[in-house]
Structure prediction request, 904 residues.
Amino acid sequence: MLVLYPIAYLIQASLSVGDPQARPPEAYGLDNYTGLGRYAHIFGNTLLVAALATMLAVVVGFAMGWILSRTNVPGRAAFEQLMALPYYVTPLMGALAWALIASPNSGFVNQFWRALGGSDHLVDINTPWGIAWVMALFEGSVAFVMIGAVMKSMDPAMEEASQVLGAGRVRTMLRITLPLVLPGVLGAAVFVFAEMLGSFSAALVLGLPNRFYVVTTAMYQLVSQYPPRFPTAAAMGVSLFAVMFAMVWIYRRIVSSGTYVTITGRAFRPRAMDVGGLRWPFLGVCVAYLAVAVILPVLTITYASFQHLTTAFPRAANFTLVNYETALSLDAVRSALGNSLLLGLATASVGVVLMGFLSWLIYRSRLPGAGVIEYLLMFPQAVPRLVFAFGMLWAWLIFPIPIYGTLWLLLIVYLTVFLPLGFRTISGVILQIDRSLEECAQMCGATWGYRLRTVTMPLLKPGLIAAWLLLFIASVRELGASILLMGPKAKVITPAIVESWFSTSTELTAAMALLQTLAVVAALVLLFAVARRAVQPGGE
Amino acid sequence: MARASIEVRDLVVRYGSVVAVRGVTFTVAAGEHLTLLGPSGCGKTTTLRAIAGLEKPTAGEIRIGGAPVFSSSSPAVNIPAERRGLSMVFQSYAIWPHMSVFDNVAYGLRVRKRPEAEVTTRVREALDLVQLGELGTRSASKLSGGQQQRVALARAFVFSPSVLLFDEPLSNLDAKLRAEMRVELKELQRRLDITSVYVTHDLEEALAISDRIVVMRDGVIEQIGSPAEIYDRPRNTFVADFVGSANLIRGRRRTDLERDGLVVIQTHGGALVHGTAPGRAAGDEVLMAIRTVRLRLERARPATPFNVWPARIRQRVFQGDFTQYHVDWDGRVLIVRVAAPDPLAEGDEVFVSADPRYCVLLEE
Prediction:
């Protein structure tokens, strides 16, 4: 219901050919779709950026996956943990940082280049390449997780057999490893490509200055300009949605087609291949990726946030705290930050209960049609958040209860778009808990409530906490849906950061971005402290 | 402890279009140890879970201690598992990893709101009984397979249930431990003096610990009987085949030669085999089963009037506990297992003989 309602309105809007402001539409037709021909270049841009970024991300993911799960590179356990970091840096942070590093005029790299006697600029981030670069750094860790998992599930005996038969390491890698993990790599590529098609923030921050639009940013532009052109935007959204839906469907086909001959029920310990002296270059690759994806962006943002005017060459006089003072003194920023944390808290708490209940319903009760519900729940994943938010905007504008422009609407939107995230996290844990653990309690005479309290909940606890944290972090950093739906009186922090980037100074934006991150970390630390104190007297 | 009888009548369990159990009827007397035996997918676990209340049958009736806990005919009854007063040991042990050994075992008592002092003594007793006396405070996630098995056992009987159900409890243990636990389990059953229903696909386990065995296939019962009956008088080819190794001999009935309650068949090769037909109706062309260990091999012709045939050793396979001989007999191969160390060599001419009590006519 929550899921289908906005989609239906999105499609309705896309078919409206009468007065664009009229609700409900005066006439229906396909004109909006045929009119999309004028925007062909935007679809081209989107495909270009997505293809470039996917290739880069899959190369990164494959290389890192192979190095960290199949070779004896030093410190690979630690690196595997660290590989989650790029995901937390988010495309927005990455885009802001890389704009500072590599924008054509004031980017650090180009300042150095000119200082060394070069003319014009060496690199330009405000290009499709730049957007793809930033997105690839972010999606690289996603691709790594997916490809790494496949590589780990491969029986090393297959590689060993190749070596015993006389093939060298490189030959083994090309002739045995690569073909075996190919379905997994392909799956990762399709998944990443689908995500890229719907990505928004990097394209917004880096593309807008050069009037380089992808579908999502074009939609945003069409809706926020005056007069807004809802039907055209809706038609674009539906087209994008159709393409993504197809991609997700292909992805599912690849994953479920069972071409993973390497995955058996037999347990084995993946043994690492001794790569000898190559260990050090491989280590270098890992460090380099983390450096450009995490360390460099974070350092850049931190540096910029303490500057009056950011340049590549630090001067003592240029250091200042004034950005933080400004950011903290602005009511708008303060309330946006507060709103975001509040929303994060509410989304995570309501979400865990809701999604926990749904997961339990689907996997534990033998409800007829559970499979259909599961499919619906995963639906928002196939829809770019911005497109989804657009459907929501259209849907809730005419909703009898006036929640448009309030935090309540954002709460509903967050709960809907993060359904797949929370559902997947919790159901992963539920599936791991053997059904007999609950049945045994039942056989011991425990009633439903008693079982839930003494067996099910304690076993689910780690999963629920993980889901809560993920939802909290994801909510506080949400951009695509919030930017369309937040009202002037109920701002949230991430869109505020983007606004600040385009309307105020870079340095202030950097400070806000860091404050957001710090606020998330602080909130989490606080919650953990409280939770631990609350749990301890209870025993266990 | 309270003991209860179990009656299962015309039980049918259906999952969608798959029928797992198709009309099963049997009873378990109070204090009896009954085993459901059969290959995987035969419906034995489903039947057990239906008795437990973890599976809702499609039709039939289940009574425990005379009172219906499930009935599909009016008045329809379906008492939930937690109120049936049974207990169960799961194949996966289902040890709760977030509790200590003590808390795991104490669960059933705490559910019943027994005073904590009583809980402590009874859990101690139960842990002593399964020889885990000193492990109470240990976290349950740090136990070996055998220890988990014992905790699961103690947890199952500590609250004095009227019936204990076992779902392949030993299948996850290695062979040596399994043999040990089989003996312990029998001892425990004797001490607890409780009604039990045990599910397994392992013949030796079933023979060792049961008073009676129910052999199942494809959701129906093939035979019910004592371990000795099941072993030596299989009702049909399936039971003969599933319950250990048997030689099957095909032949034509020779009623003209039958006397003293024995049946006689003649093979296509011409050999006459005397056997028994415990209440079996069979046609003209019939099958007879003889366990490989019930055949004897001798150099000299034994002085029995019938069931003695000349044969030749084709192959000898030494297997430690016994030696298996493949013997050319009547134009085919018989398999004979001999426990005694024996000097018979491949190519030797010998006499095969069999006690007619162990040559059993099958219903097919």
